[in-house]
Amino acid sequence: MVGLKEELLKSIWHAFTALDLDRSGKVLSHNLCTVLNVPHDPVALEEHFRDDDEGPVSNQGYMPYLNKFILEKVQGNFDKVEFNRMCWTLCAKKNLSKSPLVISDEDAFKVWVIFNFLSEDKYPLIIVPEEIEYLLKKITEAMGAGWQQEQFDHYKIALNTSREGLSAWELIDLIGSGQFSKGMDRQTVSMAINEVFNELILDVLKQGYMLKKGHKRKNWMERWFVLKPNIISYYVSEDLKDKKGDIILDGNCCVEALPDRDGKKCLFLIKCLDKTFEISASDKKKKQEWIQAIQTTVNLLRAGSPPPHKEARQKRKELRQKLLAEQEELERQMKELQAANENKQKELEAVRKQLEAAAARAAEEEKKRLQTQVELQDRFSLELEREKMVRQKMEEQVAQKSSELEQYLQRVRELEEMYKQLQEALEDEKQARQDEETVRKLQARLLEEESAKRAELEKWHLQQQQTIQMTEAEKQELENQRIIKEQALQVAMQQLKQLELERKEALEQYEEVKKKLETAANNTKSWKDKVAHHEGLIRLIEPGSKNPHLITNWGPAAFTEAELEERQKSWKGKKATSE
């Protein structure tokens, strides 16, 4: 029933769109109920078409009424041709072209019905190029002409560039223009359209004159046979006005070829459950065609398959839907690929911008690095110059310290020379005192004093020798310090490359050397002070004192009077201690 409803809707759609529904909706509904053998419902009709917001031009529209009150009640017991003719009558006057056509109005009606059969199940209705080609091929074959594929290909290309397909009225104009039936007369074209109409719309699988044997009188009569998917009807003539009977076909029927007999040739037999029909074809070719057509129909009934042309139409539609689905899938994939490509392009553009930004940052960083490098080089150059100056100053200081050390060593050598001279002076003094002691033997007191004085002088001499020994030790220590300083100086010279640490170490060593030099200078000064304290031992090389001196028989004494008193006190103290 779903397929029947779809076929009905296509014809109704044409009538529906051609009418002013506010004025003619009731007429259309009434006519549909009449031709479809559906009971009238005047109450529902008046209720639906009342003049308010729920009318057919409102949001509710005409389709709910059509489905509920008409199409759902259709049983199939109606004349399809009459139904289509009623719809055609309502829409043809408004839409049919006024230009002259090579086909009659009846042929145009049949083309319109064929269009509804072959058109797509979407609105507005169109017939796609593949179905146009199928229809034109069948009409051309029915006319007995050759199919011009190249001509149709050019027409198809021109059609595809402007639209998806043709409307019913454009299809009528195409066939009625004679573009694909040139050289054929109107009658041939009309017969071809009628043959295609019979096959596609009336389900006529085969038709023609044959002889049939009667059941009662057993005589042979010529009849016009019409084969449909489940019935064979036979008429007096091909105008189908006087129908003589039907042969009901089902899966239990069979067809068999019979041998020639009783002067009849090309015989075959149709066996049904209740009857058997003997038929004679005009020749062997027609006999074989009829046997094959009837057997194919029976096989289709057994398999429950639709008629060949409907099955072929369904297969073509499924193929188109499959191709359309594949095309849509391909378009979807292309869109996805295009979107992915656009995303990739955007990503590449973003990466390119990032790379450009990174390159710009790298260039800026390189510029900064070069600038920093130049600044560091300048700074290192300044520091190197500064270090060179520091090194030069240190070398000058080292040279100065070396010169000071050399002067110090020179002074030490002079001091040693002075020590030698002092020792010689002491020896001379000792010899002089020995001589003086020999002279003073006659003077006991003086001799005793001279003896004590000599003992004391010897004591002082020992102290002086100890002092000299101490000076020798200090000299050795100074010599060791000098060697250490020279080694430190060499280490400082070797470590000049390590500027900061070497400078610190050199400064520390310098401070250490300075302290030691100060210590040595202090020691030397202390020694000089000691020598100066005992200046009586070296009076021979100094100007004489202006104080009065003691006079002995041999000349001036070696001691002053104050010194002599001091010596006497010392002697008396020692004597008292010894006693």
From TrEMBL:
<keyword id="KW-0238">DNA-binding</keyword>
<feature type="coiled-coil region">
    <location>
        <begin position="309"/>
        <end position="530"/>
    </location>
</feature>
<dbReference type="InterPro" id="IPR057837">
    <property type="entry name" value="PH_SWAP70"/>
</dbReference>
<keyword id="KW-0539">Nucleus</keyword>
<keyword id="KW-0966">Cell projection</keyword>
<dbReference type="GO" id="GO:0005886">
    <property type="term" value="C:plasma membrane"/>
</dbReference>
<dbReference type="Pfam" id="PF25530">
    <property type="entry name" value="EF-hand_SWAP70_N"/>
</dbReference>
<dbReference type="InterPro" id="IPR001849">
    <property type="entry name" value="PH_domain"/>
</dbReference>
<keyword id="KW-0472">Membrane</keyword>
<dbReference type="GO" id="GO:0005634">
    <property type="term" value="C:nucleus"/>
</dbReference>
<dbReference type="Pfam" id="PF00169">
    <property type="entry name" value="PH"/>
</dbReference>
<dbReference type="InterPro" id="IPR011993">
    <property type="entry name" value="PH-like_dom_sf"/>
</dbReference>
<feature type="domain" description="PH">
    <location>
        <begin position="203"/>
        <end position="299"/>
    </location>
</feature>
<dbReference type="GO" id="GO:0030027">
    <property type="term" value="C:lamellipodium"/>
</dbReference>
<dbReference type="InterPro" id="IPR057836">
    <property type="entry name" value="EF-hand_SWAP70_N"/>
</dbReference>
<comment type="subunit">
    <text>The SWAP complex consists of NPM1, NCL, PARP1 and SWAP70.</text>
</comment>
<keyword id="KW-0963">Cytoplasm</keyword>
<keyword id="KW-0175">Coiled coil</keyword>
<comment type="function">
    <text>Phosphatidylinositol 3,4,5-trisphosphate-dependent guanine nucleotide exchange factor (GEF) which, independently of RAS, transduces signals from tyrosine kinase receptors to RAC. It also mediates signaling of membrane ruffling. Regulates the actin cytoskeleton as an effector or adapter protein in response to agonist stimulated phosphatidylinositol (3,4)-bisphosphate production and cell protrusion.</text>
</comment>
<keyword id="KW-0597">Phosphoprotein</keyword>
<keyword id="KW-1003">Cell membrane</keyword>
<protein>
    <recommendedName>
        <fullName>Switch-associated protein 70</fullName>
    </recommendedName>
</protein>
<dbReference type="GO" id="GO:0003677">
    <property type="term" value="F:DNA binding"/>
</dbReference>
<dbReference type="GO" id="GO:0005737">
    <property type="term" value="C:cytoplasm"/>
</dbReference>
